Amino acid sequence: MLILIVEDEVKTAAFIKKGLSEYGILSDVAYDGEEGLQRALTGKYDFLILDILLPNRDGWSIISELRRRRIDVPVIMLTALDAVPSRVRGLESGVDDYMVKPFAFSELYARIQTISRRGPTLKQEVLRVADLELDLEGRRATRAGKRLDLTPKEFALLTLLVRRSGEVIPRTRIVERIWDMDVDSNANILDVHMRRLRAKVDDPFEVKLIHTVRGVGYVLEERQE
Predict the structure, then answer these.
(1) Which of 30, 53, 87, 95 has the fewest Cβ atoms surrounding its Cβ within 10 A?
(2) How would you write the pLDDT of the chain (225 residues) with one tens digit per residue?
(3) CA 127, 128, 131 angle in degrees (round to 5)?
């Protein structure tokens, strides 16, 4: 699952992003409404967490534009506006749920899970590259039919590589997405996790899928020898 957080409060956005990462869920953050809308319109996100009071464009107009264009990505409105008319307006505008700040992350995560099990948008997503298979809903990874015992961070890292299979992903981009950190101050965190991931994904198998592109980053692909 890839989630877009549209939230102008930096601390709140960081809190949500960190909580999601602990469950192995990837997320991007947009700090103003216009950026949030443009990102959401790409259609690459599986879920949207949306504030109402945003710079440049408010949450009401974002959800209105998405639904007008028939983009049915699930949306949770997360806002300080707790009056009943605001709640009603949110639900009537096409959002899937409405939460009021302050909030507990455990409740937000539970609501994401509940919404993600509903209807056609909740179909199980399985990604495959060669004999590697990722069941995103079940959080299960296998290679050649053998289950890989991955930590949440390793699963998130592998998911990012598989989603962009064949594409060289820069080191900085990986660290930003998985750890939400400055790569310069955490130079070895990616190397450590990548070694551990390769030990599980590649070392037991003859064909290697994770490749280093020296000076740039990593790519996951099946290469013809």
Answers:
(1) 53
(2) 799 999 999 999 999 999 998 888 889 999 999 999 999 998 889 999 999 889 999 988 899 888 888 888 899 988 887 677 777 776 667 788 888 888 889 899 988 988 887 644 444 468 889 999 998 777 889 999 999 999 888 988 998 899 888 899 998 888 877 776 655 545 688 889 999 999 999 999 999 999 999 989 999 998 865
(3) 150
Outline where DSSP puts E strands in 13-144.
Answer: 26-30, 47-50, 75-79, 97-100, 126-129, 132-135, 140-143
Residue limits of CATH 1.10.10.10 in the chain: 126-220
Taking the C-alpha atoms of residue 143 and residue 58, their distance in angstroms, rounded to an integer, is: 45
User: What would the CATH number be for the domain defined by 2-121?
Assistant: 3.40.50.2300
pTM of the model: 0.57
Q: Strand 2-6 to strand 169-170: parallel, antiparallel, or no bridges (unpaired)?
A: unpaired
CATH architecture of 126-220: Orthogonal Bundle (1.10)
Instruction: Report how far Cα 86 is from the mean position of its chain's Cα atoms.
Output: 27
Instruction: Classify the phi-psi angles of 75: left when phi > 0, otherwise alpha if psi is within -120 to 50, otherwise beta.
Output: beta
Contact 26, 58 (CB under 8 A): no
CA distance 207 to 117: 35
- Which residue's structure tokens are 């099946």? 222
